Fold:
Amino acid sequence: MSGKVELLSATLAKAKAENRAALIAYLPAGFPTVDGAIAAVKEVVAGGADVVEVGLPHSDPVLDGPVIQTADDIALKNGVKIADVLRTVREAHAATGKPVLVLFGIGVLMLPVVGAWFVVTEVRMGNASSRLGTRLEDEGLWPDEEIPRRPSGRPDLQAADEIFNKRKAEVEADPENWRGWYRLSLAYNDARDRPRARRALRKAIELDRQRG
Structure:
């Protein structure tokens, strides 16, 4: 089990032992700027948060209220990237020592219903994703294509489709390489196909584990 997952488990167990709910805060990365978001996470922790979820801004936050939707739009218009999300997590965790995590879907909202095991499972996937993303950056293989965005902040879907086709061809040429699957997951995400993005990410993680 990774250090971050152990830290999350210990934090939730501590709150339970104190007979209280864990205070889990949510902040979108890149709002108002990347550096501003990192500073905000530090302040939230200083204010008493046990765990901080850093959100990946996206163009269709249909489950979020108007405040988060507005923050996401601003972050997207400022050009926030997944690499900025990973940086936010790394730097905020290093500065606070608290669980600062990227979760998927509505895991935190479902915590009272399905229990901490669901969150831990999601965090393990997020932790593996962060680790592989960092490796991809270190190898100089992080995708450098910039998807044009409309004035609303939404991506140009035609441009996203072109990048997706390129990433799909990479996977078909070398299906056992986790890097291709990871890059494909990013393309799916940019094309707003979240289920396939998750499946491609799981495949990347699985291939990396198989290779030890």
